[in-house]
Amino acid sequence: MFGLLGVAPDLDFLVGAHSAYTHSLGATVLVGLAAWALVSPRSGLIALACAAAWGSHLLLDWLGTDGSAPIGVMALWPFDAGYYLSSAGWFLPIHRNLAQPGIAAHTLRAIGLELLLIGPLAAAAIWLRRR
Ligand SMILES: [Zn+2]
């Protein structure tokens, strides 16, 4: 469920508003509140975990590379409608034009880099969970 929440902000591709409202602090709070109301009104821990899963997407997109306008994510909405992108550039941009030459090799490099950066954290989390 948390993995699905982590990728859910990109559903905004379906409505042509990528990296906007779903990639914001406001959406993260709404997800937490919805989870709290629907799933765990007695305990906020699951709601916090849901918000963290959603918010992790914003963080990772912010740390990435973006070559499509608008550049970055609307991270601080509703307080600020600006788009933000860190200068870290930890992740390669994902090309959306499937006819672009070399896209398969580029996508494999991007996946490999993401696994290299995130894989150890995921493995550590799984290891800690099993202990
Ligand atoms: Zn995204």
Question: How do you describe this structure in short?
Answer:
The protein has 131 residues and is an all-alpha fold.
Secondary structure elements and their pairing?
Elements: H1 2-7, H2 25-38, H3 45-63, H4 103-130
Helix pairs in contact: 2-3
Q: Which features characterize this protein?
A:
globular; binds zinc ion
Helix percent reads: 40-55%
Q: Which ligands are bound?
A: zinc ion
Query: Major sheet: size, sense and barrel closure?
Result: none
Number of strands: 0
pLDDT < 50 runs, ≥5 residues: none
Helix/strand order: HHHH
Shape: globular
Number of helices: 4
Helix/strand-derived category reads mainly alpha
Question: What's the N-to-C terminus distance?
Answer: 21 Å
Radius of gyration (Å)? 16 Å
Q: How many separate domains make up the residues? A: 2
> Kindly state the mean pLDDT as a whole number?
91
Q: How much of the polypeptide forms β-strand, as a percent range?
A: under 5%
